[in-house]
Amino acid sequence: MVEVTCPHCSEELELPDGAFGEFECPMCGEEFVWGQQPVEVVYNLPKEKGLTKVILNIFAFWTGFTLFATIGLIVGLIVAIYFFALILGGLAN
Ligand SMILES: [Zn+2]
Questions:
Q1: Do 93 and 53 belong together in one domain?
Q2: Fewer beta carbons within 10 angstroms: which end of the chain, N or C?
Q3: How many domains does the chain have?
Q4: How far is CA 82 from CA 69, 91, 92, in A?
């Protein structure tokens, strides 16, 4: 057990070892946050989520870019072949 001082009424409370999160003070009924662990958990979780999000964004961006480049290449080839055929046809006449 750990002894905690309520930030609202300054009464001493007992919490289980390693406890963290929101607690309701039995003396004054006010809620307070206790523990060092949630700070780490809260700090680490968005970091991993953020990194995953960044990787997903890069992947999505790269997929989009590759798709765009492939379509651009195909359209460019068709246009080039069309103009080449047009020039050849013009020369033949
Ligand atoms: Zn209290």
A1: yes
A2: C
A3: 2
A4: 20, 14, 15
Are 30 and 54 contained in the same domain? Answer: no
**CB–CB of 35/20 below 8 Å?**
yes
Q: Report CA(4)–ligand 1 centroid distance (Å).
A: 10
Residue ranges making up the domain that contains 20 = 2-34
Whether the per-residue pLDDT at 3 is higher than 60: the answer is yes
Do 56 and 91 lie in one domain? The reply is yes
Cα of 33 from ligand 1 centre, angstroms: 12
pLDDT in tens, 52-90: 888 888 888 888 889 999 999 999 999 999 999 999 888
pLDDT tens, 8-65? 999 998 888 878 888 899 999 999 988 765 455 445 545 556 788 888 888 888 888 8
Ligand 1 centre distance from Cα of residue 45 (Å): 30
Distance, in Å, from the CA atom of 65 to the CA atom of 54, rounded to the nearest integer, reads 16
Whether 91 is covered by a domain: the verdict is yes
